[in-house]
Write a structure and sequence with these properties.
Layout (H helix, E strand, L loop, with lengths): L1 H31 L3 H14 L12 H14 L3 H13 L5 H11 L3 H13 L8 H10 L3 H10 L6 H14 L3 H8 L12 H11 L3 H8 L15 H13 L6 H6 L7 H14 L3 H9 L10 H20 L3 H15 L3 H13 L3 H21 L6 H21 L6 H13 L4 H13 L3 H15 L6 H14 L2 H11 L17 H5 L5 H13 L12 H16 L3 H4 L11 H14 L5 H15 L6 H18 L4 H11 L7 H9 L4 H12 L9 H10 L5 H7 L7 H17 L2 H32 L16 H13 L10
């Protein structure tokens, strides 16, 4: 009987082994087919059915399957799913995924998250040693040179030898010690990260030293250098090689030519393929740039390519316009018209670009071309051009021509008078004719007559913004003349139509330097500071006249570091700009040197806030910020009035509450009313940007103390002012303050209303300027501008055109 039971158990065990083997084989087939989602489910099924069973070595782990799934998602451009998959891979202890996830964060411009990821992995010991170089690179990109030095000095055993040499080389390179850097890089015999190439760093240092023989040897550009044995070109090294070739007007290197067939004998095809690659990745400006420099003879002759080029020239010009690269937009529009003939849509956009650049002669020529087209179009298609419409359209071109003389200060020219008189003949009593004559009077000192005509024009068109430029020309006139009362009256009467509602002025009692920080853009900040300094009375204009004056001059450091021509240095919609850090440091140091000791704290606060708000991240920024931050920190320890400025800066520059919570709670515990002190700190922080860092502490405080109106008001400011949460908390704060008649809280509510209104006004003006830049000039052709480019057709063309070059450009390009 026992023997029978033993035989039955043996039979069951054999059956289970066969079933497990069958499931593992099915799993293997799923992996071969790259069906990783199904493979994950299959592996989870196996582990659930056979807990503790020893699986064959060929069966991947859950972590590896998640990792492969992430790579599969990434190849299909499903980036969110790829990120989640790599996070799961790490959670299942497949630590090779750290590299892919960190690289993903870098591609998404999320440097701080990449740094946090690898820093945490290095700290808890889960970062594989072969990825130590990746961690070093992230620290370098983040400008955290102190951590990089500490890494190589205190944890050398955690790094491989070639990684240590690379870090020492990069530190020497940053210090300007090119010889030392070259010596270190020469000892790097293996890639520091999976996609690295040791030759890249040696070539880079040699380029910095102007050692062109060494650069060409490393890049395979000389008889001594030969990289033809490389299995596939490295993308980073390839990019550096192409850049070097372009800068020095050299031929393509042999190893690139061998990979690309006829590229060596036909460099035009190389640039053409670059254009196609950029187009495929939807970088239309780069694509158009590559096409622009090519000879017409080197371009393919086909309907498909003509359609592609026409689309790319337009899309590239649009992209250049949106990026404020107006000169390039003008070149691309002109090229389109030269190659493909007159197109009213393109002509209108070219005219607006020329107007923006003050290229008045070219602008008038384009208007004349448009008028010729209109005349022919009206004769060819009279059913679309009834006399009234034709005269209005033609009249607008003459208004724009008259306006060009007005803007260029040449209103006395005979051609300007002719444009005005032609407009009045075509459209007597029309808003455009009234406005033009009104502006003509204004330029001749007849203000009463001129304003009457322009305002009559605005009254006729009130309710729609077809002729928006009339309103903004008059607005500019009042601003230039500093006629604030008339400007306010204009905004109140007509501004709503043009989204130009005046901000609340009476209740905003902030000093000018704090008002400047309410601007969402660097240009707005700099212009506000410049105007505020110009308006200072003589006794106030001395640097050390007051803390507010010192702060104002501290803000000016950022404009001074960019130079006098701010409008050309900064794009109007940019929140930050790339500064030359040595110049900025020199400017700030010179300012601090002149600042009286009693005002040094506010000076340092302004510099630290400006560095955080307006300077784009680059190498060296962290070190520069640290210099001023440490000075402010030291002063705050001995000067109690600087505690709040110190905490404002610290909150703004901190990304995680845990990094300051302990110190902040200790500081608050020393205040008479910790909850109120916390709320007041957040209301100070609010002046310099929106951050939700303190929201958890504020929520806890409000639950504990629901009778302090400043707490819900402070909570509101941790949300965007357009959100429902902001409105709800702000309303709750006001109702509570009114109910208990807390005058200080009511004043804080009024102040927040004024701040929110001012910020909203700045954003409205920014949107209006962006929209104005986005809708091209003479609106008489608005109907012709409604048909967007057919991007679907463009996407259909790409595979066919890429196939034309398949023999010359393999997939690894």
């Amino acid at each position: 009987m026992a023997k029978g039971r033993g035989s039955k158990k043996s039979s069951q065990s054999l059956s289970q082994q066969q079933s497990l083997k069958s499931l593992c084989a099915a799993l293997g087939r799923l992996v071969e087919r790259q069906a990783y989602s199904q493979a994950l489910k299959k592996l989870e099924q196996i582990q659930k059915a056979y807990p503790g069973a020893e699986l064959p070595a060929t069966v991947p782990s859950l972590g590896e399957l998640w990792y492969r799934l992430g790579q599969d998602y990434w190849s299909k451009h499903q980036i969110k799913l790829a990120e989640r998959a790599w996070v799961e891979a790490i959670a299942h202890r497949y630590f090779a995924a750290y590299y892919d996830l960190a690289k993903f964060y870098l591609n998404q411009d999320r440097l701080s998250e990449a740094q946090t990821l690898l820093q945490g992995a290095f700290a808890d010991g889960t970062l594989p040693q072969e990825l130590g170089g990746c961690y070093g690179k992230i620290l370098f990109l983040a400008g955290d040179l102190d951590s990089l030095k500490t890494l190589v000095q205190e944890s050398p055993e955690r790094l491989e030898v070639h990684q240590r040499h690379w870090i020492q080389g990069i530190l020497a390179l940053h210090a300007g010690e090119h010889g030392e850097a070259a010596a270190c890089f020469a000892q790097v015999t293996k890639p520091v990260s999976p996609s690295d190439d040791p030759d890249l760093w040696l070539a880079y240092v040699a380029d910095k030293q102007n050692n062109h023989d060494e650069v060409r040897s490393r890049l395979g550009l000389s008889a001594k250098g030969d990289r033809s044995g490389a299995a596939s070109p490295n993308s980073a090294l390839d990019q550096f090689t192409i850049d070097y070739v372009r800068r020095n007007s050299l031929d393509l290197p042999p190893h690139l030519a061998s990979h690309r067939g006829s590229l060596k004998t036909d460099p035009g095809k190389f640039k053409l393929r670059l254009a196609l690659d950029h187009a495929e990745s939807q970088d239309y400006l780069a694509a158009a740039r590559n096409l622009y420099v090519l000879s017409r003879k080197s371009l393919p002759v086909s309907e498909d390519f003509a359609a592609l080029e026409a689309s790319l020239l337009q899309l590239g010009a649009e992209a250049a316009w949106q990026e404020d690269d107006c000169e390039e937009a003008e070149l691309l529009w002109e090229r389109y018209l030269q190659v493909y003939g007159f197109d009213p849509q393109v002509a209108v956009k070219l005219a607006e670009t020329q107007k923006f650049l003050d290229h008045w002669g070219h602008f008038r020529q384009t208007l004349a071309t448009i008028r010729q087209w209109l005349s022919l179009e009206a004769k060819t298609n009279p059913q679309h051009w009834i006399p009234q419409r034709y005269q209005e359209v033609l009249g607008e071109t003459w208004y724009r021509e008259f306006d060009s003389y007005l803007k260029s200060g040449t209103i006395e020219q005979r051609a300007a008078i002719r444009a005005l008189e032609t407009l009045e003949e075509l459209l007597p009593g029309h808003p455009l004719a009234l406005a033009a004559r009104g502006f003509y009077h204004l330029t001749h000192g007849l203000e009463a007559e001129g304003l009457a005509l322009v305002e009559q024009s605005l009254e006729q068109i009130q309710g729609h913004d077809r002729y928006y430029w009339i309103y903004y020309t008059l607005r500019s006139y009042f601003t230039t003349k500093k006629q604030q009362d008339k400007l306010l009256d204009l905004q109140q009467r007509f501004g709503k139509t043009y989204d130009d509602v005046p901000p609340v002025e009476t209740s905003l009692t902030l000093p000018p330097w704090q008002q400047a920080f309410l601007h969402p853009t660097l240009l707005g900040f700099c212009e506000t500071v410049r105007e505020a300094i110009a308006d200072l009375k003589p006794q106030q204009a001395q640097l050390n006249a007051s803390a507010d004056t010192v702060a104002l001059y501290g803000c000016q450091c950022f404009g001074d570091a960019l130079g006098d021509d701010l409008e050309n240095e900064i794009k109007p919609k940019d929140a930050k700009a790339t500064f030359e850090l040595p110049v900025l440091a020199k400017t700030c140091d010179a300012f601090l040197k002149k600042t009286a000791p009693e005002f040094r704290g506010v000076a340092l606060q302004v510099i630290c806030l400006g560095l955080y708000r307006f300077v784009k991240r680059k190498k060296g920024l962290a070190d520069l910020t640290k210099v001023y931050w440490q000075q402010l920190e030291q002063l705050a320890q001995t000067q109690p009035p600087l505690q709040v400025p110190y905490w404002v800066v610290r909150v703004m520059r901190t990304s995680k509450l845990s990094q300051l919570q302990k110190d902040l709670l200790a500081y608050l515990s020393r205040q008479p009313d910790p909850s109120l002190a916390l709320a007041q700190l957040q209301l100070e922080v609010r002046l310099f940007g929106v951050t939700d860092l303190l929201r958890p502490l504020l929520e806890i405080a409000f639950k504990r103390d629901s009778h302090t109106p400043q707490l819900p008001l402070a909570l509101a400011t941790t949300f965007d002012s357009s959100s429902d949460d902001y409105v709800a908390y702000q309303t709750e704060s006001f109702e509570l303050a009114r109910r208990i008649q807390d005058q200080a809280a009511l004043a804080a509510c009024r102040q927040e209303d004024a701040i929110a209104d001012r910020v909203a006004h700045h954003h409205r003006m920014l949107r209006w300027n962006s929209n104005r830049r986005g809708r091209y000039g003479p609106l008489f052709l608005r109907g012709l501008l409604e048909n967007d480019l057919d991007l679907d057709r463009l996407n259909d063309l790409m595979p066919r055109l890429l196939n034309l070059f398949e023999s010359d450009f393999p997939d690894d390009f």
